[in-house]
Design brief:
This protein is mainly α and 440 residues long. The protein has one domain: MFS general substrate transporter like domains (Growth Hormone, Chain: A, Up-down Bundle), CATH 1.20.1250. 79% of the residues lie in helices and 1% in strands. It has 16 helices and 2 strands. It has a two-stranded antiparallel ribbon with strand order 1-2. The longest helix is centred in the first third of the chain and has 35 residues, at 7-41.
């Protein structure tokens, strides 16, 4: 049984954030949206079924569809991994599948709209599904008094690792003439490097992250049946049991609904910010990349500072403060016109991005049973990814109907306000006492 707060185990866990953040930054948030809008689709859009779709609309639909697919598979896989003690195997399977398809983005060129979207879809599923099992380790490797700090440390590793890889990709794009290569080729190389970075640094997770051994035996009624059938059946059975337990626990359920709402706003800002700057503000690729680098750098410290801040005022209050700041961010984004204002927007996002994500993860982890962490984090992922369907979808629809992304971005304030109100009703201490008393 791995010891909690073990430095090597925590290091191995944090290094996965270092590894996969290359995808989050270079592929999901920065380089691929700009490359997809400017090179693959182009400013004139693409005709599908007689209708012209912009790059922003297509991007929003695919991000939403990837979230929907993960929403379907994550809970059952989480239940299976808890029962069979295979969280690490699932994590590594999705990590290396996602990193492979990320590398394949190198072969996407101008006009390859469907090809690019399909490869990105598979890579995105690998990224978000892998994070279900990554998050599930948190309550098993950290004690309750350290969980905020460890969660923040993981995000800070991610922002640093993702930022370094992104800086290399940005250097390629900005200095493509000095390297005697075209800008599209530089972007494609940067995308492939993100996949290689993800796969390479995951090896630290392979070596140092340890998982508790299997504690449960296969029920007698499954003996003699095919192994795959048995595990899937047990997974569904445990999923139904966990669903009933979650639905009976008021404060955990309120938190999940609140998280679903405000996380919708956060994920939509992350997923759509670069393509918003490209299409709505006509910013250069270099400007967009520099802004993302600013966000990554500031977020390293933002995650750690908010983790310490949570220790002073409480995790829930700290999350609520970030939601107030997020509301101000989307209002400001509606009015911005210049590259300087976009840089300012990036600074504000960097301050609260790590804090809101790290503290939400650790707050949830402190309220769930450790022995079923993957099941419960699968629910966390379900609510997270279910929310990630509607934000990008609403953004895409509003953009398609109005012809402008400004109303799309400011409409996200609804998610932050609703999440703030619901979160205020969550009694964290009651949830933790219920967990300790075996209420689950």
């Amino acid at each position: 049984m791995p010891e909690k707060n073990d430095r090597r185990t925590i290091f191995g866990w944090c290094m996965y954030d270092w590894a996969n953040s290359a995808f989050a930054t270079t592929v999901l948030a920065a380089l691929l949206p700009a490359y997809f809008a400017g090179e693959v689709v182009g400013p004139e859009g693409v005709a599908i079924g007689g209708t012209i779709y912009s790059a922003t609309t297509l991007w929003g639909f695919v991000v939403a569809f990837a979230a929907f697919l993960t929403f379907i598979i994550a809970p059952v896989l989480g239940a299976i991994s808890d029962f069979s003690a295979t969280k690490k195997k699932f994590l590594l399977s999705f990590a290396y599948g996602g990193s492979l398809f990320t590398t394949l983005l190198f072969f996407c060129r101008s006009g390859d709209v469907i090809k690019t979207l399909l490869i990105f879809l598979v890579a995105q599923i690998g990224f978000i599904a892998g994070n279900v099992f990554y998050d599930a380790f948190l309550p098993q490797i950290a004690t309750e008094d350290k969980i905020d700090w460890v969660s923040g440390k993981g995000f800070s590793y991610g922002y640093l690792g993702g930022g370094l890889q992104f800086a290399i990709a940005l250097g390629l794009v900005a200095g493509h003439e000095q390297l005697s290569i075209s800008q599209p080729l530089a972007a494609r190389i940067g995308l492939a490097m993100a996949g290689i970075w993800w796969a390479g640094f995951t090896l630290f997770t392979v070596k140092y992250l340890r998982e508790a051994p299997r504690a449960e035996a296969m029920p007698d009624n499954y003996h003699g049946k095919p192994v795959l059938f048995s595990y899937v059946s047990v997974g569904f059975s445990r999923l139904l049991k966990t669903t009933r337990r979650v639905s009976r626990f008021r404060h955990l359920l309120i938190f999940l609904i609140a998280f679903m709402l405000y996380n919708d706003g956060i994920q939509t800002v992350i997923n759509m910010a670069t393509i918003y700057g490209k299409e709505e503000l006509n910013l250069t690729t270099t400007t967009l990349m520099l802004t993302l680098l600013i966000i990554q750098t500031i977020a390293i410290f933002g995650a750690l500072v908010f983790s310490r801040f949570a220790g002073l005022i409480g995790t829930k209050r700290a999350v609520m403060i970030t939601l107030v700041i997020w509301s101000g961010i989307v209002i400001y984004a509606y009015f911005i016109q210049s590259a300087t204002e976009y840089f300012t927007l990036g600074i504000l996002v960097g301050i609260v991005l790590g804090g809101s994500q790290a503290l939400s993860r650790s707050l949830y982890g402190s309220m769930i049973p450790e022995e079923a962490s993957a099941e419960f984090y699968a629910f966390y992922s379900v609510f997270s990814k279910f929310s990630a369907i509607w934000g990008p979808m609403a953004f895409a629809i509003i953009r398609q109907v109005t012809g402008s992304s400004r109303l799309s971005i400011v409409s996200l304030i609804i998610f932050f306000i609703a999440g703030f109100i619901l979160l205020s009703f969550v009694d964290v201490e009651k949830a933790r006492r219920a967990k300790d008393a075996g209420a689950f």
